[in-house]
Amino acid sequence: MATRSREKALKREETRDKRAKAITRHVRITPSKVGEVLALIRGKEATEAQNILTMLNKGASEVVLKTLESAIANAENNLSLTKEELFVAECFAGAGPIMKRLVPRARGRADIMDKRTSHITIILDRVAK
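The chain above was modelled as a monomer; its predicted structure follows.
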C-alpha cells in the first residue's frame, strides 16, 4: 500500500507545474472588472506589468499589483529567478462566492442584490532567450 502512495506522489511531482504563481482569493470586486485589468498585463514582462498597474486608475489595479508582487517574490525566493527574466504567462480571474443582500423595493417587496467576489491567479514564467 505504501509503495502505491509513493508512486502517486512521484507522479504528482513530475506533472506539477513548476512556474511561479500567486493566488488572491475572495476579493470584493467582480471578475469582469478584474479581467479588464488582467488583460492589460497578460504577456508583458513583470517590470512592465508593475509599471502599468501603478499608473492605472482602476479599483482592481491595486489588488492585481499586490498579487503580481507576490508572484514575483515567489519566483525569486522559491525558484531563484530575477525580476528581469520574468513575464506574465497566464493571468485570470475566476468567480468566488457571491454574497446575497436584500434591497427594499416598492409595496413592501424586496429584490436580491448579488455582491460578487473574485479569485485572482497570476502565473509567471521565464522569458525565453
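DSSP finds four helices and five strands in the chain.
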